[in-house]
Amino acid sequence: MARGVAWPGRGACGAWWVVAWLMAALHGAAGAEWVAEAPGVRSMAVQPSPAGRTGFTLIQPEASGVTFTNLLAQARQLTNQILLNGSGVAAGDVDGDGWPDLFFAGLDGPNRLYRNRGGFRFEDITDAAGVAAPELDATGVLMVDLDGDGDLDLAVNSIGGGARFFFNDGKARFAELPANLVDGLAVEHSRP
Hints:
By secondary structure, the chain is of the alpha+beta class. Helix content is about 20%, strand content about 30%. Strand 9 and strand 10 form a beta hairpin. The longest helix is centred in the last third of the chain and has 12 residues, at about 180-190. The relative contact order is 0.15.
């Protein structure tokens, strides 16, 4: 029997296969229980499909509720090819319900945060959460407990806009760390 492993707070991966793996690991896990392996690490027994059955099934955006598409205008691609590296995705429980939620970093458009409602159904809670930051060319994201209060916060990196930090109240509502404090942190940490 295989074990699907989730590392809460470690979400700076930038590929769709992360989402596919997460969904595949949770598929067929009805009635299964998470087992705490170590602080911040848990696993769940996963029973693979019988031989001859498809391991992955395409779930249409309309069915899952995950409609994020990271578009980049061709004019921007030609002037800054670093943008072609794409953006990041992070998975972690931001609202404390035990389900891994999904955050997609956006280029040429807002970030998106999707609340996992179970059964491969997600709800876009970006606006209510306050994490869209449409002015950023977001290139990476990390879900981590920045303030030590036990819930996952967001660190979002960008091209030309620096890093942004969003603090979670534990119910998936975030407050951004003011830019002057971020600048002050950078100055303090860059001194010899």
